[in-house]
C-alpha cells in the first residue's frame, strides 16, 4: 500500500521517471496501466480551476467528479501505485493543465508524460500541443469504448448523416450482442415502437424508489466556496450519486433487479405524480459510465445476463431498449463528435439567436412541463432523455434559442454531461443546429406530444388544447411558427410532408392568428 501524495513537492520514489495523467472522466480501474505496480511511474489526478470555469457547472456535478477522483486516487494507492492527488488548494497557482504538468516534471526531473486519449476536443488539443523541454509525450487509448478511436473515421464522415439504426446494427453484429446466427434475437433489431407507453394511474404506485447514496462532500463544497468557483443548482453535503466502483455496481444491480423489468416500456414516459418522478425506471448510470467507473461492455453484459436468467419476468423489449442507448446511441454520438470537431461546435443551421430565458436557471415559469424538468435538473443535476429532448430541448428549438447558450446550459447542469456526449445530443438532436448530421428531421412537437407522454398538462396554467387564446399552451403556437418560418428548409423533407399538409389545411385567418400569438410569446419569452 502506498500513500497518496497531496502536494506537488512530495518526495517521490527516486526511480520515478514517468508522469501518467488521469483526467476526471478516466477513472477506469481496468485500464492496462494498472495491471502491475511500476516504481518509475507517478499517477497524477488533479482538480483544476480550468475544469470548473469553462462553463458554469452544477455543484453536484463538480462534487461528484472531485469525490470520484479522490476515491480513485485512494484505490490506486491501496493497490501499491504511486499517486499524486492534488486539490484546488494545491493547483490554485496554475492557470491551466500544461503549466501544472510542467511544474511537476521540472520539480521531479521527469522525462515522460503519458496520458489517455481525452474525450473532449479542447483537452485533446491542449495535451497534443504540450511541448516541454526534455519531456516525451505519449497518448494511449482509454480502453473504455467499444468502438476503437481509430475506427471512428471508418464509420463516420465529416458533415455527413450516418443513420444511427444502421450503425447500431453493425455494432450488434461486430460485438455479438443480442444476436443469434448473424440475426437479431427476437427477429427484429429495434423494439422502439413498444418503448413509448405513458404511465397510467395504476402504474404510478409500482414505480420503485431510486437507490440513493450519502457521500459526504462537505469538504469539497467548502473548497469550492474558498476558491470562489461559481456553480449552479442545489448543493447538498450528502451526495446521492455513486462515486466509486462499489456504489456504481450497486446501482447497476439495482437497475437490473428493480427497474429493467419496465425500462423499455416506460423509457419515454413523464409524470409529476410520483415521489420517484425524476428517476422512474431509468438506470441513472450515465455519470458512472461517462466517468469510466463502469465500462459500457460491463453494463451491457450484466443487463443481458440478468435478463437471460429472468426471461419469464423481463421481456427482450426492455433489454433491447437499454442496449440501444449504450451500444448504439452512446457510441454513435461519440463518433459524430470526433469526426466533426472543431467546426461542429459552431454550427447553427437554423440561425437561432434568442438568449436563453431566465427561468432555465430558476425554474420559475408557468409552463408546468418546463418547470418540472428544470427544477428537477437544478435539484438533482439530472433529467432523463425524453425531458431533455422533448421538453427543454424542444422548447429551445421552437423558440429559436442560440445553440451556443443551449449547449452551455446542458453541459453545465447535468452530472453526466461531458462535451463529447452533450454536444451531438444538444446541438444535433434537440436543436437541429448541425443541419441534419444527427437527425433527419427536427425533433419539434406541439403540446399534444407532451400531453400524450406525461401528465404535466393536467395541472398546468396553460391549456394544452388551445393555440391562440391567452391561456393557450405556448408549445402549440410556437410549434406552428417554427414550421412556418422554416418551411423553405423542411417542406420537401419526406418525414415532414404530413405536417406541412396540415398547415396548408388551415385557413389563412387561423394561420395568421397562430403566427401573431407566437410572435407575442417570442417577444416575451422570459415571462412565460
TrEMBL record:
A Pfam family reported for this protein in Swiss-Prot or TrEMBL: DPRP
SUPFAM superfamilies: Cryptochrome/photolyase FAD-binding domain
Name of the featured protein: Deoxyribodipyrimidine photo-lyase
Organism of origin: Shewanella ulleungensis
Amino acid at each position: 500500500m502506498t500513500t497518496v501524495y497531496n502536494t506537488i513537492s512530495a518526495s517521490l520514489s527516486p526511480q520515478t521517471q514517468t508522469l501518467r495523467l488521469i483526467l476526471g472522466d478516466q477513472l477506469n480501474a481496468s485500464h492496462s496501466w494498472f495491471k502491475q505496480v511500476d516504481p518509475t511511474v507517478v499517477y497524477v489526478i488533479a482538480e483544476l480551476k480550468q475544469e470548473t470555469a469553462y462553463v458554469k457547472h452544477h455543484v453536484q456535478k463538480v462534487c461528484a467528479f472531485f469525490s470520484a477522483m479522490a476515491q480513485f486516487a485512494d484505490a490506486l494507492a491501496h493497490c501499491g501505485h504511486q499517486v499524486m492527488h492534488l486539490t484546488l488548494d494545491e493547483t490554485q497557482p496554475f492557470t491551466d493543465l500544461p503549466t501544472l504538468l510542467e511544474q511537476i516534471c521540472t520539480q521531479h526531473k521527469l522525462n515522460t508524460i503519458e496520458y489517455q486519449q481525452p474525450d473532449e476536443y479542447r483537452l485533446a488539443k491542449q495535451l497534443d500541443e504540450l511541448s516541454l523541454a526534455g519531456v516525451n509525450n505519449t497518448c494511449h487509448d482509454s480502453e473504455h469504448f467499444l468502438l476503437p478511436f481509430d475506427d471512428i473515421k471508418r464509420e463516420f464522415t465529416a458533415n455527413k448523416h450516418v443513420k444511427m439504426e444502421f450503425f447500431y446494427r453493425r455494432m450488434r453484429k461486430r460485438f455479438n450482442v443480442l444476436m443469434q446466427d448473424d440475426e437479431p434475437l427476437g427477429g427484429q433489431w429495434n423494439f422502439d415502437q413498444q418503448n413509448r407507453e405513458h404511465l397510467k394511474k395504476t402504474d404510478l404506485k409500482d414505480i420503485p424508489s431510486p437507490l440513493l447514496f450519502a457521500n459526504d462532500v462537505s469538504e469539497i463544497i467548502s473548497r469550492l466556496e474558498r476558491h470562489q468557483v461559481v456553480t449552479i443548482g442545489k448543493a447538498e453535503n450528502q451526495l446521492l450519486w455513486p462515486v466509486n466502483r462499489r456504489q456504481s455496481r450497486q446501482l447497476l444491480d439495482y437497475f437490473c433487479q428493480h427497474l429493467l423489468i419496465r425500462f423499455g416500456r416506460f423509457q419515454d414516459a413523464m409524470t409529476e405524480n410520483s415521489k420517484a418522478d425524476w428517476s422512474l425506471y431509468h438506470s441513472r448510470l450515465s455519470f458512472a459510465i461517462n466517468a469510466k467507473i463502469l465500462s459500457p461492455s460491463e453494463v451491457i453484459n450484466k443487463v443481458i445476463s440478468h435478463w437471460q436468467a429472468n426471461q419469464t419476468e423481463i421481456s427482450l423489449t426492455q433489454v433491447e431498449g437499454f442496449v440501444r442507448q449504450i451500444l448504439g446511441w452512446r457510441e454513435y454520438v461519440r463518433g459524430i463528435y470526433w469526426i466533426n470537431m472543431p467546426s461542429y461546435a459552431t454550427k447553427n443551421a437554423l440561425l437561432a439567436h434568442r438568449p436563453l430565458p431566465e427561468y432555465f436557471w430558476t425554474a420559475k415559469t408557468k409552463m408546468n412541463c418546463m418547470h418540472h424538468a428544470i427544477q428537477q435538473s437544478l435539484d438533482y443535476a439530472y433529467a432523463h432523455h425524453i425531458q431533455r429532448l422533448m421538453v427543454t430541448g424542444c422548447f429551445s428549438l421552437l423558440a429559436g434559442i442560440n445553440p451556443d447558450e443551449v449547449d452551455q446550459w446542458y453541459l453545465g447542469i447535468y452530472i453526466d454531461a461531458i462535451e463529447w456526449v452533450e454536444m451531438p445530443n444538444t446541438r444535433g438532436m434537440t436543436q437541429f443546429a448541425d443541419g441534419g448530421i444527427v437527425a433527419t428531421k427536427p425533433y419539434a412537437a406541439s403540446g399534444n406530444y407532451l400531453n400524450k407522454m406525461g401528465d404535466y398538462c393536467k395541472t398546468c396554467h396553460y391549456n394544452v388544447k388551445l393555440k391562440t387564446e391567452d391561456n393557450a399552451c405556448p408549445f402549440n403556437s410556437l410549434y406552428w411558427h417554427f414550421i412556418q418560418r422554416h418551411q423553405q428548409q423542411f417542406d420537401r423533407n419526406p418525414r415532414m410532408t404530413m405536417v406541412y399538409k396540415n398547415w396548408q389545411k388551415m385557413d389563412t385567418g387561423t394561420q395568421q392568428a397562430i403566427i401573431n400569438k407566437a410572435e407575442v410569446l417570442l417577444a416575451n419569452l422570459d415571462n412565460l
